[in-house]
Specification:
By secondary structure, this protein is an alpha/beta fold. It has two domains: 203 residues, Enolpyruvate transferase domain (UDP-n-acetylglucosamine1-carboxyvinyl-transferase, Chain, Alpha-beta prism); 210 residues, Alpha-beta prism (UDP-n-acetylglucosamine1-carboxyvinyl-transferase, Chain). 31% of the residues lie in helices and 24% in strands. The protein contains 14 helices and 24 strands. The chain has a four-stranded mixed β-sheet, covered by helices on one side. Helix 1 runs parallel beside helix 7, helix 8 packs parallel to helix 10 and helix 8 packs parallel to helix 12. Bound molecules: uridine-diphosphate-N-acetylglucosamine and phosphoenolpyruvate. The site of phosphoenolpyruvate has 8 residues, from helix 12.
Length: 432
């Protein structure tokens, strides 16, 4: 079984560069389907398995997709007629496949998508996406594991209040509304930087979206959208993960391409723990000396503390002094990694939607399995600080969201190797 093997206790130092954001590139590639004239060229695309999956989804819908991931570029030609069905094989692999629903409804007036269902972090319903489409005139039906949306007379602008500022629902409604008749207003919209990136992309294609990044987004439908060239924003979660990597090893790391404003909540919490964070022209510098002190934190929609950094912060809090309470409010079941941390001798107690950490835990290297994407990163981070050797398996989760994570850590001085089933010996990886 493929695994990453870490020998803990090495202080990280040097410079690392973060990639384009996974959570921006997936909705942007889905939104590219809106263009009916000219091709879209998307740049700064990270070479992730999720990008491969969304590309397959777009191809299955009859878009022409050229993946040039060696140069971080994807070219999409969606000018021909598209088919309307996103199949289970893709949606099962990656929930973000649901994001083609808005563009398909806008273009084809019909979409049939396999129901995404839940995943390791929660049940993840799509009721808010559907509520938006219904308000715009779509008729929604369910059957045979699929959801169908039908709008024979075309989508009409509407006022939509989201019960929760869902990232995916905001994106799906924005893309549907981009080609709808009239104006759509999304209230209680998600405000994540990735929402702003998608809105900018729609505008670059000739759309009319204002207010992205605030609670209220206004989309005036246009008749046609045109292919353009768009650069994806840097990944704030990869940035945060390297910030924790620096801090958990008492290191000194410069993270290039990081946007500090996108990580304000994380920066503020890490500073509260005693980490020194300096803004530089090229990104941010993170320096830490032991002991760090634990804090209380609660995940919230942006600009609150991101749920996608919860497990990595849990790793950091495990190595910090004092008691910290970490509360997850975005997903109802995002504590699967706690059991794996316990294998590493972590002192963690789950109390409802909170976790109580009494630190510092005397972390010991162990065999652990990633339970989701961010858990994979968090277990590796814990391994950097643990005594002895940690082996992390189920790496397909990691590959969804991190490019060459082990190689980047090795280049910063970590003792880390990735061993494939084919390798007979545990060879040192090449540093980047
Ligand atoms: C590809 C992508 O961008 N993924 C991110 C996106 O996921 P995603 O777009 O799925 O997250 P949402 O913001 O939609 O979900 C947040 C919460 O709202 C609930 N909900 C959502 C939609 C809905 O119709 N009904 C409903 O109840 C979900 O179950 C969850 O509990 O935002 C999450 C929250 O920041 C991040 O963790 C994910 O990394
Ligand atoms: C939960 C995540 O992604 P997704 O929504 O694609 O599952 C994540 O990026 O941490």
């Amino acid at each position: 079984m493929e695994r990453i093997i870490i020998t803990g206790g090495h202080r990280l130092s040097g410079t690392v560069r973060v990639e384009g954001a996974k959570n921006a590139v997936l909705p942007v590639l889905a939104a590219a389907l809106l263009a009916t004239e000219g091709v879209n060229v998307i740049k700064d695309v990270p070479n992730l398995s999720d990008v491969g999956t969304i590309s397959e989804v777009l191809k299955s819908l009859d878009a022409k997709v050229e993946n040039r991931l060696d140069v971080n570029e994807v070219i999409i030609d969606s000018t021909e007629q598209l088919s309307s069905e996103a199949q289970f094989e893709y949606v099962r692999k990656m929930r973000a496949s649901i994001l083609v629903m808005g563009p398909l409804l806008a273009r084809n007036r019909f979409a049939r998508i396999a129901l995404p269902g839940g995943c390791a972090i929660g049940s993840r319903p799509i009721d808010q996406h559907l509520k938006g489409f219904e308000a715009m005139g779509a008729e929604i039906t369910f059957g045979h594991g699929h959801v169908e949306a039908n709008v024979p007379n075309g989508l009409k602008g509407a006022k939509i209040y989201l019960d929760f500022p869902s990232v995916g629902a905001t994106e799906n409604i924005m893309t549907a509304a981009a080609l709808a008749q009239g104006t759509t207003i999304i209230e209680n919209a998600a405000k994540e930087p990735e929402i702003v990136d998608v809105a900018n992309f729609i505008n670059e294609m000739g759309g009319k979206v204002v207010g992205a990044g605030t609670d209220t987004i206004r989309i005036e439908g246009v008749l046609k959208l045109y292919g353009t060239t768009h650069h994806i924003i840097p990944d704030r979660i990869e940035t945060g993960t390297f910030m924790v990597a620096a801090a958990i090893t008492g290191g000194d790391v410069i993270i290039e391409n990081a946007v500090p404003e996108h990580n304000a909540a994380l920066i503020s919490k890490m500073e509260e723990m005693g980490v020194i964070i300096t803004e530089l022209d090229e990104g941010i510098r993170v320096t830490a000396e032991y002991p760090l002190k634990s804090v209380d934190l609660k995940t919230m929609p942006h600009p609150g503390f991101p749920t996608d950094m919860q497990s990595q912060m849990m790793a950091l809090m495990l190595t910090s002094t004092g008691t910290g309470i970490l509360t997850e409010t975005v997903f109802e079941n995002r504590f699967m990694h706690v059991e794996e941390f316990r294998r590493m001798n972590a002192s963690v107690k789950i109390e409802g939607r909170s976790v109580v950490l009494s630190g510092p835990s005397d972390l010991q290297g162990a065999e652990v399995a990633a339970t989701d994407l961010r858990a994979a990163a968090a277990l590796i981070l814990a391994g950097l600080a643990a005594d002895g050797v940690t082996r992390v398996t189920e790496l397909s989760h990691l590959d969804r969201g991190y490019v060459n994570f082990h190689g980047k850590l090795a280049a910063l001085g970590a003792d880390i190797v990735r061993v494939s089933p084919e390798s007979l010996t545990e060879k040192k990886v090449q540093t980047v």
